[in-house]
Protein 1
Amino acid sequence: MVIPDTFSGDVDNSNRVLEQYSEDTSIFKIRPELVVYPKNVADLHTLIHYVHTRRGELSLTARSAGTDMSGGPLSSSIVVDFLRYFNQILEVNTVHATTQPGVFYRDFEKATLKHGVIMPSYTASRELNTVGGMVANNSAGEKSLTYGKTERYVHTLKVVLQDGIEYEFKRLTRTELEAKKSQANYEGEIYRRVEGLIHQHHDAIKSAKPIVSKNSAGYGIWNVWDETTDTFDMTQLFVGSQGTLGLISEITFNLVKPKPASRMLVLFLRPKHFAQLGKIVNAVLAHKPESFESYDDKTFNVMLRVFPKLFWRLGGNPFTLLRDFWPEIKLVFQGGIPKLVLMAEFAADTETEAALMAKQAELSIKSFGVSSHITKNQSEAQKFWTIRRESFKLLRENVSDKHTAPFIDDFVVLPEHLPEFLPRLYAILDEYNLLYTVAGHVGDGNFHIIPLMDFSRPDFIQIINKLSERVYTLVGEFHGSITGEHNDGLIRTPYLHKMFSPEILNVFQEIKEIFDPHRIFNPHKKVDADMQYLRSAIKSQS
């Protein structure tokens, strides 16, 4: 494979690099033919035209940090790395920030905080992921209960489409949309066809929009046309599209000013409280926590198992830790390990206001007989975040014969369904004798289950197939989403039929056809699912 001389970036097909780019954080391994590092938009144009000359043989898959858990940035063809050169923050003010996609979120946040603002849909991997990956997956995190997902913060996108030209997309008024549609070129055709598709399938699209608060499954066609304001925003198709419609070259984000003070209300639920879980969650939500997270008894057990190492991550002072963990120690002595721990963090302009909000929420759940604790300061709250974020990571590091297997890691159901949903979920999981924890964003009903599995088991692939089928069928029963923030990728695209009707799946195919008729952008994700390809891509069981 010889990239044209007009390409000014770097090209690498060394064994070391191809091995590095054959994995993300998913269960898949796919070795690319080539990794390229474009320096500018002209290079993206060159790559697209080159791939067109070998149509049907080659494709382009965008990649930045490679923290994706769904197999999204993996390809057997050409991987386009945006991390090396597309990594500049171009402009920041108190309202917007313009950046290239290969910028790490950690660096982006440092730049925005200088102006007292943030882009609040950051993920748990905020120190590792890039902003381009956040857009590609429509990412979310602990603050998304209040602030929403990445889709809410994308103001403008520049995208290089299949004709090799960079286009700018943003929210348009009706007058602006009609002007776009009147153009006798490819851009005009795109706007005419997308609007026509929306009107043709209007009722089906409207009813297909997931009723849960978070969703990254499919294409966000239901967010493009706002009937109330009669505005048309094509960025909503690209957000969460995993690079399957074009190559994003520049992003302008909307920014918000974060609240400076916070207090956390921690609830310790026993099995007897499970029947009231939905009511407890909604009672707390009525007081508008900024975030509402959870972890289960398995996570608590993991914490005990790895406590010596967790001890050092929490500061290493035994007297401080004994004081900070005294509520949990006392709880265990009194009635054993809680079945579920809920963490509601309330943010305000002052510490007094935040403490009052937490106290009012605590009083609202008093009738349920739930043990509770309000943290006194941010450092005390940090221990709960550390348990939530670090325990499973430590367990993974200390179990040598098993590996993380994210494949049912991101489903969403309405919180009021949790008392019925969770016991049925546990019953399914326990049939397979897996080591796993359940943690997530309980305020959104968004849970992450990542089993530790022995990839050498003869029935490893069979377990993944059977469990995925059963869990996503259960999610479908409750009208939930199979992915709230991690997206479809290779792992979930075959299960989109659990969420969407044949008509909507055909709409997704039409969107792909409009933007990528020759399938040059990131194949086998979002549409064109191939179970045989999926199975063959799972990491070697040797």
Protein 2
Amino acid sequence: MNKNRHIIGELQEFFANNDASKAINSISTIMNSIRIQSKVIGSVKNPNCKFTCLQVLQLLVLFPFFSVKNAANYSSSALCKLFTCDKDMFYRFMNDGNVNWRCIIYSVFRQLYSRVSRKTTAKSDVKCVIIDDTDLPKTGFKTEKIGKVFSHTQMKPILGFKAMFLCFTDGISQSILDFSLHGEEGKRSDKPQGLSKKQANSRYTKERSEDERIAKRSSEYLASKIETAISMLKRSIIEGVRFDYLLVDSWFTCTELLKFIVSRHFGCHLIGMIKMGKIKYETALGTKTAPELIKVLQKTKNLKYSRSIGYYTATISAKISGIKVNLFFYRKGKNGNWNALLTSDLKLDAKEAFRLYSRRWVIEVAHKEMKQNLKLGKNQCRDFAGQIAGISLCVLQYNILSYVKRNESYETIGGLFAEITKNSVELSVAEKIWLLIVEVISVIAEALNCDAMALTEQVISNDKQIKAVKMAFDKLAVAA
């Protein structure tokens, strides 16, 4: 394969000739239009490799759309019949600590979002960014940096990583902008990261240069999530992303993040869930905690029922660390528990703040869809760089799917993904059935002491279904 061969272009031609679905054609069209320069990728082409770095990246992005679970399964896939190569090529690229995954993700996002902006005829909607983390469980101790993290969903320590994502949404679709991979030091000094000495020593280790890009990722691993989140937001602003609100849950709502947001020059605000805990707020009712405030508000009959959102609400102006904020309290029904939102936007009312904050759930949906359809967290690379690569590829795949979903009017990412993989699965099954038929006929021919090719032709000519399978396989062979 030479460097001038266009992988996506050849796929488009192949599927066009084979009556592929609208979905796979949409994916091919979008990927063919995305331009990524070699300096953006950052990695240097292996002189012994017949593929360029961009071509390797394109093939890796295509994996889930052709039902390729990982590089080890590539050789048995339909995609391999089109572009023959060895699995080691993919592992070398993914384990390369110099690949600039953040730059690649932002480059693809900018190109996709510029298309969305050009096609949008409606008035610009409110734009939000969301920060949230999710568990990435693992089953073995061989992965570099692996340790135990506390799962808030299972309420216990689990073996794995925490992945923190920065998501962008305009109310119609969403894209992932950035992520970081985290571990936790643990509470016991004799068991760092919750591992015994034997377990810790069994982890993969690799000497790295401080100049490698993966060194920055490694430094984030045990760093404060709040500090890393602020770095992510700074990076997104430098990349040209502008937003109206940052949405976070109670874990991320803090004075550091609030101070950062209100100091931005383009007028963005924070909307965050707050804990009904011991943090005190300066108000006209005195300096009180959230539970104390709601008790006073209830006594003074400052509660309102909002029929449009179905909650009882109460509002009060406050100060925290010298910053003016509004606190909104919400309760479902007369006997429900109180929850509260904090916002730096003093013009918002309780109803609008609730509606905007409800957008935060799109990142939860994104986590679920990436895990379910794109195998987020299932990467088996031992190298930490390989783990970063695996998540980055999921992000690229998700952003492309999100764009196609928006433009082709699919109801869910899952429904779109099902249609995309449908044709590739059919090709793979046809290939396997045909190879099985050939093997059976060869055994029969040997037993009957006759020519296998002649017997094969005779069987095909007398069976329309087998002939159809043979034709499907021949198309793969010709394309390869």
Protein 3
Amino acid sequence: MSLLKLPIVVILSLIISGCSLIGGQKNQAVTIKYWGLWDSAIVMNQIRQDYKKIKPNVDIIYEKKSPQQYRESLQAQINSTTGPDIFQFHNTWTQMLESELAPIPQSIISQSQFKDEYYPTIFNDLRNSNKEFVGAPLGIDGLGLYYNEDIFQAAGISQPPSSWQELANTVVKLTVRDTAGNIRTAGIALGSASNVDHFSDILALMILQNGGDLKNPVDARSADALEYYANFARGDIRVWDETMSPSTVAFTGGSLAMYLAPSWRAAEIKTANPLLKFKIAPVPQLEGGSVSWASYWAIGVSKKTKYQKEALEFLKYLQEDDTLIKLYSESAKTPGRIIGMPYPKKSLAQKLASDPLVGAYVSEAPFMRSFPMASRTFDNGLNDQIIKAYEDAVNEVLKGTPASNALETTAKNIRETLAKYPKKPQ
């Protein structure tokens, strides 16, 4: 019987029931489980409600997880099919999560969009071994040079140093010692591993700027960078040493003039000491160079989700300019936070370019590079193990071992670590 001969009542009942003749599964109720690390449930609820207006059949359930053991828990639960549909991951984890991350189709975000709209480090970082994009960033971060305005003013210094040579001269003027020669106000927190928060990011930046090889640091440029780093904490001209408080604590307390750290530390410092006057400048460069550091979090979709289409559509929504802007503004209103995560898109840079806290990171973003030496990922994997290899090298150099000798052991340990997480072509 043709459709034209069906009674009108039957035709109407077919339409109302949403049968397969008209694609009735299109508006099926779907629940997407989203694992995050940094955004509060209040912030994400705003995004969730906005998305519900566009996709009324899709419900986003957001869970804020602890960063400790997150990576192992994420992989275990995805592989047992009880994990999230969409989740946050660090930009250095693409190799470790090769089996869990679904490729992003061109219809969601095209390769040309990744290249044209995002910063180069994002284009390079978030691809799997088949060169498929497997994540999209919610922000960009790295290292900035925090400086205490009162200490600078007392020393008669009006601007933060923009080069390492200028910094070397400046820290001597900023360092204050007591009559016994002990450091009371440190010029900058550099040279050691035990009490320099983010030492691995800083050392990685120095090696990259000097043209060294982080993956196999047996070259002279890597050794020179390590020696230079250690010099800040040894000898009579040291401006920092292992007797000092952890660098974040020292800067917050006003006994440290300069401090290299990611943008999110600003809120922590402001909360702990609201009266501290500080600004953040771009990291120092070698003369004629432009290399900065990247460490940021992205979102990806599970290969195991049965709602991959819906999860990818939500990922796309999270990358829209209006959504990123709202995420930033709502995050900045959260108690304990005064800023959001700097935007990952070039087109949004001007919105934050003049901000005294995050403007430095935006200006550095075009020159950012990354490697698995990012602090505080808590991954018990590539980052933590490679950081330990470099930490041992720093400690050996402070004991008097030549950097070139110390880095031979580091290179061996890095090779062994990378072998645990081989790339897996699909």
Protein 4
Amino acid sequence: MTPMRTEPYKANRKAVQQRLYTEGPVLPPRLVQRGHLPWLSTYTTQLKTEGKSVNTQKSYMIGLRHLIETPLPGEDIISEFERDSMNIEQLLERVEPFNGRLDLWVQSMVDRSPSTVKARLAAANHLMNWLGQKWPEHLIRPKSGKKLPRTLTSRELSLVKEAAACSEDPVANLIVTMILDTGLRVSELCELNISDIDLEDNSAMVIDGKGGKDRLVLFTQSTVESILAWLPLRESRNPSGDNLLVTKTGNVFQSRTVQRLMDKLADLAGIPRGRLTPHVLRHNFATGLLERGADLVSIQRLLGHASIATTRVYLEISDQTLREIYKRAQTVQIEECDS
């Protein structure tokens, strides 16, 4: 039997590897003429063109900047200026998917939660598609795992409401009341304008919410009274603006400002800070509706969920609550029988 000749194969493989190494990655035709442009502003424009929300853009940039900064063995760490001032061609050369940088970046996220890793990989995947590159098959997104939304107990909720009503900053009561009454996201609440609110109709219009969508939210008389009590003070803080929420210095509220306020309320209520966030209050709004008989489609519309699958997770909370009630009832029944 004639032995197999491996020399031509080895020579051919070496030639292919050499060609790939010397040629490097190539930009897609749509970017060839723009390769000299700064990547940051060009890519940001692309995200806006696709209708990505401001929060999505921020999330993408956090992960991508970490990716770009990740050094290969023997490389110097680049500065923030160097990172952001690269042109598109330089960026492609830096992050091309098979030079090992992606792998090192993914490995650096080993202690991150699956949802964080998944979000950052989605950002990197989007960048690679924009640059006309294929995503490496060996880099697979982790499964997020099922995680039930956190909610406050009835007692904790009462303590938070009481703390908000007694807070030194009157806006605290308005924020807690509105989120529990409307299910607004914290970013939506911060961006809500007075002109978006109809006190006679007990409703407000969320403009350009998550996913760039508008939606109607409803509220009760409790929110009407809270808004009316807040407006005179809000007028003294910022007479010319239209934002509903303003700080003591007249500035527009940011999400982190609301969370700092939540931390203070948690301290006043005597509950751990991690238990109280604007999103936890939003979860309480949703589970409250479900427990009072609202259907999933209505809750989905009020929350502004793009998919009803996102809303369906609240069914599991309701089932969990039902099990706890049943268990308590059975325990009481057994105790009565024993006595």
